[in-house]
Structures are given as C-alpha cells and as structure tokens.
Design goal:
Radius of gyration: 19 Å
Strand content: 15-25%
Order of helices and strands: EHEHEHEHEHEEEE
Number of strands: 9
C-alpha cells in the first residue's frame, strides 16, 4: 500500500524533527525550511499534504500558501497551517490564503494525525467524484456529474440525498 507523503515546512529544526518522529510511522515525510524550498519541493515531489508553519523568516507561511495555491499542479494539495499564533486574525488570513486547516501550537500528536487523515480522505473522495462521472450496471446508468439516473432510456433527476 502506498504511504501518503507529507511535506513539513518549518524554519525550526527541532519542530521538523518532532513532526518527523510523530508522522514517519504513518507517512512518508519530506522537509523544507523556508518558502523557497517549500515551493520547489511541492513542484518536484507533489506531496499529498503540506504542514506549513506561519511564522518563518523572509516569506511567511501565509504568503507561501498563496504561492502554492497559484500553481495549477499544487492548488488542490491540502495545507494545514501550524503556528504559535492562535488569534482569529491570523486564522482568517490563513484561510483567505487557501489553507484547509489551522492548528495552534502546542497540539497533541493524535489530533494532528487525525486532521491529516481527514484531509487525505477528503482529497481522495474528491478524486473519485471528479474522475468517475458515470456508472453503468446493465440497463441502469447513474450520472454523477448531473445527478441523474437513466433506466432503459428514461431519465430521472436525483437530489443530493439520493
């Protein structure tokens, strides 16, 4: 089974090492210590998820998130912001930059792993719904993109619940 890859972006080596210890049992872990390395790593390795520190020298995590979102190849990679700043203003800026989640330090490793797994599940669900737009079994045809059902040539509209 393929292990999902996580890119950890943090300027503090002890944070990168701590996160590697916590995550390496479950995921393939890669590192970047600044924005430039992060963007380069994202473009070359296409990680499944990015853990991105907000407070970094030079280009901060929020601006880095914007750069990642501008790239067509990386715009759909889930980004979880990690930061010592827990104030609402920073959270809003992170979400406006394209972050999928925001976790204030200190955090429990179990919570981080749970959030990562949830984001990876959501990403997987999105891939399935985008790639499989039609399912056919005998005379029954289900069209996922238009939410309709066709039986023997007769078409029926479906709601979100059906």
């Amino acid at each position: 089974m393929k292990r999902n890859s996580i890119l950890i972006v943090d300027d503090e080596s002890y944070i990168r090492e701590f996160l590697a210890q916590v995550l390496s049992e479950h995921f393939k872990v890669r590192f970047a210590k600044n924005s430039e390395e992060a963007v380069s790593e994202v473009n070359t390795t296409q990680p499944d998820l990015i853990l991105l520190d907000v407070l970094m020298p030079g280009v901060n995590g929020i601006e880095t998130c914007k750069l990642i979102r501008m790239q067509p190849e990386s715009k759909n990679i889930p980004v979880i912001m990690l930061t010592a700043l827990g104030d609402i203003e920073q959270k809003v800026k992170a979400f406006q930059a394209g972050a999928d989640d925001y976790l204030a330090k200190p955090f429990l490793p179990e919570e981080l792993i749970a959030r990562i797994l949830r984001k990876l599940e959501s990403k997987s669900d999105q891939k399935i719904s985008k790639s499989e737009t039609q399912v056919q079994l005998g005379n029954l045809k289900l069209k996922l993109d238009s939410l309709s059902l066709e039986i023997d040539g007769d078409s029926y509209d479906l709601g979100q619940i059906e």
